[in-house]
């Protein structure tokens, strides 16, 4: 019993210190910083890259929004990677004036593989671009996206994540759950870290990379979460990523629970792959670079699945102590509440604060807020399931609404 109690107390301290650190860093999102000075003042040339698999229903809206950019049209080109498409994606993209690359592969079907295939060709061509953007086909882009990303490039930032907003936050409790999650993440993770010189992370879509960054080895990723993997590799190298609140891309979220379950399962498996692949390298980076940024990157990877496992062990130790009469029924209930409230209830309050700070209307999201603990609870179940059964098959998200850029401007 004594050893179990020591284990429990040690785990409590680890979990408590971890979350105190996260709270302290999150408060830095309230800091207002002066704009960074320009290192150069020019309009750069960009590639807008859209990996797309059977996206005929939505890709036209994204292309339309890119064509409406308040940026010199001769200074950016739109590329569509028609990846294993069997529909009219390529045809629509060509008719709308984009440059289409058709790719077919029976083995490498990930977004990361498609990006690497395309970018390797551009590297060999020594293409005349300063940087590129990556978008998902169901996105639509704010008209000032390129202007604001060009500003970041002029300030000397070479990998920058834009603000990933949501096209359909009020469709149902599932899309609302995604919206609340992303709004909270953007404010209290990405912005907070950017404000104090730590590193945000790439977030799947709506990001910019300076072309020179990927010339040595291309878009070389191995996991299902190529965005997180690329971010971790930059942090390991001692290089910060940037954040652009005013470079906005709108993303469509799933409304079906089965699709959401599949997507979040894939993300969790990707995180597990990153934990296995990069934890040791992050530890070495902390030792070599001796910076808080590297330590924060290590905490990110440890704060996903490893922290979840520690919390599970902590819960189990409480039940063991109860079974051995080490604690009373009331103490067991109180201890479980201590884990459930921060995990399921506190995020609802945090989301409300994030919405208020981000000036998002709260009234249309009330049902979503009430269901947010369910959304987060299902994610816990997904994490637990993925510890034992890891599905890696990509499943296409069905698009249920035709939302154009004019509808979100």
Q: Unreliable segments (pLDDT under 50, ≥5 consecutive)?
A: none
Q: What is the approximate shape?
A: globular
| Neighbour order of strands in the largest sheet | 3-2-1-4-7-6-8-5
Helix content: 40-55%
By DSSP, the count of extended strands is: 8
H/E element order: HEHEHEHEEHEHEHHEHHHHH
Structural class call reads alpha/beta
Instruction: Compute the number of helices.
Output: 13
Q: How would a textbook summarize the main sheet?
A: 8 strands, mixed
Mean pLDDT: 91
Q: Return Rg in Å.
A: 22 Å
Range of strand content = 5-15%
**First-last Cα distance:** 61 Å
Give the helices and strands, then pairings.
Elements: H1 2-26, E1 46-52, H2 59-67, E2 76-83, H3 89-95, E3 99-103, H4 111-125, E4 131-134, E5 140-141, H5 145-154, E6 159-166, H6 173-195, E7 207-210, H7 211-214, H8 226-236, E8 242-251, H9 257-289, H10 292-302, H11 305-323, H12 329-357, H13 366-386
Parallel strand pairs: 1-2, 1-4, 2-3, 6-8
Antiparallel strand pairs: 4-7, 5-8, 6-7
């Amino acid at each position: 019993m004594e050893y179990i109690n020591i284990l429990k107390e040690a785990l409590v301290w680890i979990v408590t210190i971890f979350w105190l650190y996260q709270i302290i860093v999150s408060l830095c999102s309230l800091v207002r910083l002066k704009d960074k000075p320009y290192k150069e003042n020019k309009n750069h040339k960009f590639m807008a890259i859209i990996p797309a698999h059977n996206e005929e229903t939505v890709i036209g809206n994204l292309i339309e929004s890119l064509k409406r950019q308040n940026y010199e049209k001769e200074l950016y080109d739109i590329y569509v990677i028609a990846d294993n498409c069997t529909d009219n994606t390529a045809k629509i993209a060509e008719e709308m004036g984009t440059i289409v690359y058709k790719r077919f592969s029976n083995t490498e079907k990930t977004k990361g593989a498609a990006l690497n295939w395309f970018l390797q060709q551009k590297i060999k061509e020594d293409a005349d671009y300063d940087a590129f953007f990556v978008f998902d086909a169901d996105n639509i882009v704010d008209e000032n996206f390129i202007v604001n990303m060009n500003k970041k490039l002029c300030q000397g930032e070479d990998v920058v994540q834009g603000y990933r907003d949501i096209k359909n936050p009020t469709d149902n409790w599932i899309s609302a759950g995604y919206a609340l999650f992303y709004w909270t993440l953007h404010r209290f993770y990405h912005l907070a870290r950017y404000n104090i010189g730590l590193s945000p992370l790439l977030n799947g879509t709506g990001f910019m990379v300076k072309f020179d960054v990927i010339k040595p080895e291309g878009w070389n990723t191995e996991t299902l979460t190529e965005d997180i993997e690329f971010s971790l590799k930059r942090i390991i190298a001692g290089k910060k990523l940037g954040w652009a609140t005013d470079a906005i891309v709108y993303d469509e979220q799933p409304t079906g629970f089965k699709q959401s379950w599949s997507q979040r399962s894939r993300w969790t498996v990707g995180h597990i792959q990153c934990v296995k692949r990069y934890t040791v390298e992050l530890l070495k980076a902390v030792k070599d670079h001796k910076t808080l940024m590297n330590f924060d990157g290590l905490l990110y990877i440890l704060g996903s699945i490893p922290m979840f496992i520690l919390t599970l062990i902590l819960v189990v130790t409480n039940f063991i102590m109860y079974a051995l009469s080490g604690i009373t029924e009331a103490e067991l209930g109180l201890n479980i509440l201590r884990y459930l409230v921060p995990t399921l209830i506190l995020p609802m309050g945090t989301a409300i604060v994030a919405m208020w700070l981000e000036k998002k209307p709260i009234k249309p999201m009330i049902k979503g807020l009430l269901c947010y603990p369910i959304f987060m609870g299902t994610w816990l179940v997904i994490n637990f399931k993925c510890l034992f059964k890891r599905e890696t098959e990509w499943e296409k998200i069905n698009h249920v609404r035709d939302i154009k850029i004019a509808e979100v401007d």
